[in-house]
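Revision sheet: structure tokens.
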Amino acid sequence: MTPEDSARLLAALVETLLPGDDGWPSGSLVGVQAVLATRLVQERGEDAVDAVIQSLGDDAAALLADDEDARVAAVSAWEARDKTLFGFVRDAVYMAYYENPVVVQAINAHGHQYKLIPHVTGYKLPRFDLARDTPTHGRGRWIPTDAVQRVPVETLDLADERTQNWGRKQ
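Predicted:
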């Protein structure tokens, strides 16, 4: 497969996952496939893009077709065959899409307040009102600060691989 074929296939995969409509740009239009390829290499190594293409197998041809039903069926078949790789790709595609400045414009245009960098200025919220903001669902509870007790850390599985690697990966 040529580099151009690989690029077209990734764009078709992204287009199938995020086709866009009604004021929403498609994933391929905003370039999600480039971010996907970069994240694949960062997280899974230099051969990761080829691994995705190989994993798609015979379904790759259907992704390049003009038949939307065939493209959706191809992606569904790939998901059933390789849930782990599909899940990584799907999550990477969705994250790349929703962190794209053009998509943030679309989110805001649809009446939702959304910022790419919310920690700088935050979101405007009304002042806390005990009567309005007290939960009424009857679930949960709170512990007063002076009643909080330490967690015995020896009961935690801190040797777990996820705990050891947390924060080390991008």
